[in-house]
Amino acid sequence: MGLVRTINLSYFLVLLSSFCLQFGHATDTIAAPNFIKDSETIISNDGEFLLGFFSPVNSTYRYVGIWYAKVSTTRAIWVANRNKPLKTTSGILTISKDGNIVVLDGEKNIIWSSNVTGSVPNRSVQLLDSGNLVLQENTTASIIWESFQHPSDSFLPTMKISANIITGEKVQLTSWKSQSDPAVGTFSLGISVFNLPEI
Fold it and tell me: How far apart are CA 66 and CA 76, in angstroms?
């Protein structure tokens, strides 16, 4: 009888561990057709970063952003729809049919998109322990788009500021317009390419 109880307990613990692992993995990832709506968040696996909807101080507009989970303020370190805020709390963040990360308003209009070309259906969005939000192809786990390549005003470890001489593309920081408006402001920090690269 004692052996049966031991086996049953062991089986239960294995099932519980499996459930916890699956639940823990799911909290940092959105896979189509799933989505998060306003008031919901996903959290990085180490619990350091949150992704969700927020309003800046003295503002009722809603934005999708990333902020530190263990800090009392929701001052975002990255903002998706920084130039096009939501005016209500009916927004959602999901993966569109063409495989892009999108922010939709209550009428399902696209407010912001990752704008990756080439339709690939099997994609998911994950918030990494570094604070980087990545869009990846599930079969190969290859990263198609990442927030570190499109930063707001915050510089995090492992992030790189860069300038491509051939394409002219830049990865640079840009200030908020004000404490209550995360739209692109007056100042930027990046690399200017003359004869030699300069910061």
Answer: 5
Rg over alpha carbons for the chain, rounded to the nearest Å, is: 20
Cβ atoms of residues 117 and 99 within 8 Å? no
For residues 30 and 84, give the distance between their C-alpha atoms in angstroms, rounded to a whole number: 22
Q: Hey, what amino acid is at 140? A: T
Beta-carbon-side half-sphere exposure of residue 90 (alpha carbons within 13 Å): 8
Q: Which amino acid is at 45?
A: N
Helix (H, G, I), strand (E, B) or coil at 64: strand
How many Å apart are CA 44 and CA 132, to the nearest integer? 9
Q: What is the tens place of the pLDDT at every residue in 14-70? A: 343 333 333 334 489 999 889 999 999 999 999 999 999 999 999 999 999 999 999
* Cβ atoms of 110 and 103 closer than 8 Å: yes
Q: How many angstroms from the chain centroid is the CA of residue 34? A: 15
Q: Which domains does the chain have, with CATH numbers?
A: 2-198 (2.90.10.10)
